[in-house]
Amino acid sequence: MTRPSNHFSQSIILHKRKIDFIQMKQAIWLYFILLIFEGALRKWILPGLSDALLIVRDPVALFILFKAIKQNLFQTNLYIVSILVVTIIAFITTMLFGHGNLIVAIYGIRIMLLHFPLIFVIGKVFSRNDVIRMGKLMLWIALPMSILIGFQFYSPQSAWINRGLAGSLEGAGFGNVNGYSRPPGTFSFTSGNVNFWGLVSCFLLYFWLQVKQHNKTLLIAATVALFGAMSFSISRTLFFEIGLSVVFALIASWLKPIYFVRLLFSIFIVLVVVVLLSQLSLFHTGIDTFIARFTDASESEGGIKGTLGDRFLGGLIGAITNSGDLFWGEGMGMGTNAGAKLMTGNATFLISEGEWGRLIGESGIILGISTILIRVFLSISLIRKGFQKMIAGDSLAWLLLSFGFVNLVQGPLAQPTVLGFSVLTGGLIMAALKVPSRKLHKRFYNRQAKC
User: Fold this and answer.
1) Distance of CA 432 to the CA centre of its chain
2) What's the mean pLDDT in 65-69?
3) What phi and psi values does residue 408 have, to the nearest 5 degrees?
4) Are 245 and 402 in contact (CB under 8 A)?
5) Dihedral of the CA atoms 291, 295, 297, 303 (nearest 10)?
6) DSSP secondary structure string, 344-411?
7) Structural domain contains residue 163
8) Does some domain include residue 61?
């Protein structure tokens, strides 16, 4: 007599869990949307709430983690356990031996306690098809984004379109090359724009390798947008990111001849686009400015070798030699601009502009290097799995790693937008490594039904 009732109860429980799963997926999409338009909210739409909106994605991250724990999708592993232990110890040493500012410390620990675990949750919740959908959406967003940064590039910093945070009339552009500044797009700072286009280039190359399955008109339009964005960005970082993605695509095509043919076709399209657009004065100015920035900066930093060496080491050596308290560190959150503003009133680099230097400067040499090693080992593990997946015929995760690997290893996570792109890309890579979505979701619901 009780069996129908038990079956009904199990159906209700399964239905609730299905709703939770859908809500988690929707929250991840919201995390993505806020990542893209957070800067627009802080500059143009709600400038009076600029400071509060700095952490607008934190409640979303907390919601996702809560739902994941509730549904037993947040499964601890060596990376999560290690980073939690290191971060908690660093928080304690911050309060005992560091700056002792509770608010700054909490702002600092949220990076690893709240956002870092999202990498693994996104990898669990998202399917490979979800990754493809997000990639296609990014290509569509890239079209108006390129137009926006074009207007920002040619407009004075006093123009509304170049308003800074909280509606600042000083402008959101950065640097000055030949009278032009680096445009931030919809983001708070130019680093967000660079990360956006770096991730777009990964998806664009993947879709070109699968050109028969995708809209060729969209691919060509997105390629034009990427070329324009690279020239208007005046960013060597974006140039290196795109170059690295091309190298990863060449490796994939070398192992699979059909990819090589498609890559040659896409390169031919790009060359045609570059030649045609370079004849237009609209793009010609951007190209000249980009070349001037590249040449001047390379000469001052000792060429490409000096530039890459300094950027990859991220101030590690400088942090060890110049740190005020090498063993305990200065305290978590102090190396972030927001933390510095809370402590001094000015958003500046109190410890190090480089990520590895910040970690050691904040947490000390033992805990700082421990955090670095955790990120390095995670990235190496993903590279290995992505390479195996590529050999098996699926290059999606491998191409996403061309952007995600560097960010996971030494991306400046103290910058909220870079943190968001690093977490999102890490999760997309893990999702791309999984079995097809139907099998995964069927397995998930079957497991829940047995509970």
Assistant:
1) 16
2) 92
3) -70, -35
4) yes
5) 130
6) HSS---SS-SSHHHHHHHHHHHHHHHHHHHHHHHHHHHHHHHHHHHHHTT--HHHHHHHHHHHHHHH-
7) no
8) no
CA neighbours within 13 Å on the CB side: how many for 394? 16
**Structure pTM?**
0.88
With a cut of 80, say whether residue 348 has pLDDT above it.
no
pLDDT value at residue 309: 55
Q: Among residues 389, 372, 371, 376, which one has the least CA distance to residue 430?
A: 389
The structure tokens listed for 296 are: 């001047």
Torsion angle, alpha carbons of 405, 408, 413, 415, to 10: 20
Averaged pLDDT for residues 320-336: 76
Helix (H) or strand (E) segment spanning residue 210: none
Listed in sequence order, the DSSP H helices in 41-169 are 58-70, 78-97, 102-110, 118-125, 128-154
The count of domains in the chain is 1
Q: Chain-wide mean pLDDT for the chain?
A: 83
171 occurs within a structural domain? no
Interacting residues of 257 by C-beta distance below 8 A, sequence separation 6+: none
Pick left, alpha or beta for residue 173 (phi over 0 → left; psi -120 to 50 → alpha; otherwise beta). beta
Q: Which residue's structure tokens are 């590039």? A: 153
What is the DSSP code string of 192-204?
A: HHHHHHHHHHHHH
Largest CA distance in the chain: 83
Provide the residue range defining the domain that includes 416.
77-104+126-155+181-437
With CA atoms as reference, report the closest residue to 167 among 62, 49, 284, 285. 49
More confident residue, 412 or 15: 412
116 three-state secondary structure: coil
| 228: CB partners within 8 A, 6+ apart | 146, 149, 150, 277, 283, 286
Whether 15 is in a domain gets the answer no
Q: Is 176 helix (H, G, I), strand (E, B) or coil?
A: strand
Contacts with 45 (C-beta within 8 Å, 6 or more apart), sequence order: none
The SS3 assignment for 127 reads coil
Q: How far is CA 342 from CA 215, 336, 372, 387, in A?
A: 48, 10, 26, 44
Calpha distance 191→204 (Å, rounded): 20
301 is written with which tokens? Answer: 């930093």
Half-sphere exposure of 98 (CA within 13 A, CB side): 31
Q: Is the pLDDT of residue 414 over 80?
A: yes
Amino acid at the residue 402: S
Residues 449/14, Cβ–Cβ less than 8 Å: yes
In tens, the pLDDT along 255-281 reads 777 777 777 777 777 777 767 766 666
Please say whether the beta carbons of 188 and 39 come within 8 A.
Answer: yes
